[in-house]
Design goal:
- The chain has 656 residues and is mainly beta.
- The protein has five domains: 137 residues, Glucose Permease (Domain IIA) (Distorted Sandwich), CATH 2.70.70; 163 residues, no CATH class; 69 residues; 105 residues, Sandwich (Chondroitinase Ac, Chain A, domain 3); 78 residues, Immunoglobulin-like (Sandwich).
- Helix content is 5%, strand content 46%.
- The chain has four helices and 53 strands.
- Strands 1, 4, 5, 6, 7, 8, 9, 10, 11, 12, 13 and 22 form a twelve-stranded antiparallel beta sheet that branches. Strands 14, 15, 16, 19, 20, 21, 23, 24, 25, 26 and 27 form an eleven-stranded mixed beta sheet that branches. Strands 47-48-51-50-49-52-53 form a seven-stranded antiparallel beta sheet, covered by helices on one side.
- The N terminus and C terminus are likely disordered.
Amino acid sequence: MHFFMRHYFRAFVRSGLFVLGLAGIAGGALAQKQSYPKGYYQFPIRPGLPNSLAGGLGDLRSNHFHAGLDIRTQQREGLPVYAAAEGYVYKVAVQRTGYGNVIYLRHPNGQTTVYGHLLKFSDPLASWVRQEQYKKQTFEIDLFPEAGQFTFKKGEVIALSGNTGGSAGPHLHFEVRDSKDNYLNPLYFGFNEIKDVTPPKFVNLAIRPMDINGRVNGQFDRRVYTPVKLKDGTWRLAEPVSATGIVGLDLIAFDQMTGTGFRYGLQCIEIKMDGQEVFSYNIEVFPNASTRDYNNLIDYETEQATGQRFLKCYVPDGNQFNLYKTNAINGKLNIADTLSHEVKVRISDSYENFSELIFTIKGEPQNPPLPAFNTEVNPEYVQTEIRENTLVVKAKYYRSQDPFATFYIKGKGERKVPNLYAGESAVFLTDLRKEMPDSVKVGTTTVKTFLRSQVLPGIASSFKDAKWSVDLDNTSLFDTLFLMGQQNFNALTINNRGTALNDYIHVTFTPEKAPEEKSRTYVYRYLNGDYRFLGGKWDGDLIRFDTRELGTFVIQEDTVPPRARLVEHSKHRIRGYVGDGLSGIANFKAMVNGEWVLLNYDFKKGYIWSEKLDDSQPFEGELVLEVTDRAGNSTILRTELVDLVVKPKKTKKRRR
C-alpha cells in the first residue's frame, strides 16, 4: 500500500470508523480508537539487544491467523521473560496444546499482553498455580487471580521462555490486545530490537472465474501463475493472461525480515486495475473471536489438497471479517470488454517495505465460438466437481458426433450441449442455485452427483437420509453449502475435506453393520491414511457425533490400551513416556500411597514428569500410574518407589 493510502488506513482505524466484523464485535459495533505509544512497552526477551522473529501478526497458520509475534530465543529454553509494562496477572493457564504455559498481563492503559509457550512461571505465581493444580487434581488448568493478587513492574522477570503447548520449537509467543480483546500489531509500538529493511516476496498468483460466466484463458478453471522479479525490483508474470466476466485473484506471498530465513504474513495488500483501487487489505487489528474466519478467507480447498495457502484478494461470500476496503463488487475484477487492462498488486509489511507486481489482463469475447468439428463423448471418462456455486461435468470426447449430456432431477431429464471444451474434454456447467441434478448421463454412462440439499448460512436447518442425517446451527456455515452425502458400508462421506465450515455440524449415522461391542467403537475422520478421533455417542445402532471438518468418517474399534513406560520412579522424581496408536491419550493420573501427584505433560514427545507440592518431602511407598485413551482403554502400572534411575540399555555394535 502506498504511503498516503497506508496512513489513511491507520487514521481510518484510529478514528473508530473501521468496522471489525460481526463475529468478533457484536452487531458490527465500531472498534475503539487505537493508539501506539512508543516506549510504553519494553521488549520481553533480551530487551535492548538485537532480536529476531519466527512469526508475526497475520501469518497464515492452520485454521487461524497468527495472533502475535513469535520471538526467537536462541534455539533454547530458559531465557528470562520480562513484563512489557506494569500490570497484574489477569489470567494464567497450563495447556497441553495451544499456548502451553501462558500468562496474560493487564495494564493500566486497558490493554493486555500475552506470553505463551513458557517453561515455568516465576514465584510466587508458580507456587500458587501448582497449589491450584493439586487442589483440583489436574495438569491442565485456567485460572483468573483476583485483580492485583499478582503484580509486576515493567522489566520484572515473570517467567522463563520455553517450548510448551503446540509450539514447534523454543520461542516466546507475544501478543498485545486492546480492551475489547482485539489483536493489535506489537511492531507498531516501536520496538528497536527488531530491524527490517527487506521487502516482501511474491510466490504465486491464481486467477479464478467467480461465476458461471467467468473465464480465465478461455476456461472455467483457476489458473496459477508464478511472478518473476525483474532487475528494477518490480515483479511481472511470464505468461499472458486473458479473461472475461467476473474474476478474482488469490495470492501466495510472504514478508521477509533482514537476517532471517523465516516467512511472515503480509501487513497490507492493495490491488488496482487501470489505476483505480479495487481491493485493499490491512491486518493491523482484528477480533479474537474471528480467527476461524481465516478458513473462509483463504482458498481452503487448495490448502487441504496441497498445503499451499492462497489468500483471497476479494471479499468471499459469507464473509463477516472486515479487513477490507473494496470496489462495488467486493474486490473482484470485471472484464467486460476485449481491451487490455493493467493490474497492480502492491504488498507491504509493518515497516513499509513493499513489492509490486504489474501485469496485463486481455479481455476475451464473452461467448467465444465452440470448435467447428463434430465430437463423440467417451463414456468411460466422466468427472464432476463443484466450483463457485457451479456443477462442472467434464467428459472426454472423440470426433464423430455432437456431444451432449442429460441432467436428471428426480427422474426428469434435460439434455445439454457443452459450454466449452478443455483439451480433450467437453465441459458442461450448471448453476446449482437454480437446479441441483442428482445424476448425469453422458453416452451410456450415468454418474451420480450425490447432491442432497442446498443449505443456506445463518439459518438452522437439517437434512435426513435413510441411514444418516445432518443438523446445522445458524453459525455452522460461512456460505451456501450444496450438501453431498454418500454412505459406503461403515463409512460416510459428506462433501469433501475442501469445504470449510465456520462451526460444528451434528451428524447421525447408522453403519451397515453395527458393532456388537460399542463401548470401544467411535467415529474417526479419515485423512491421508490417518484416522483422527472424533468420538460420538451410540443410540442403539445409530451413532451421533459433531464435526467442524467435512470429508470421510469411519467407524473404528480401538481395543488396544495406551502405552506407558517409566524411566524413573525414585523418591525424588517420577518420569516416563505415554502414547496411544489410534484414539489418543485422554488423561493420566499418578498416585503415591494413595495421594495424587502432579504430572506435567509434553504431548509432542509423550513425556511426563512429576512436580511435587513440597520439594523437601520425598516420595514414599507405592506408585500407581493410570493412563486412559479416548476410547476408554486403560493401562495401569504399579511399582515401588526406589532410589534408582532406570537407564536404557546400551547395545554394543558388532564389528564387521
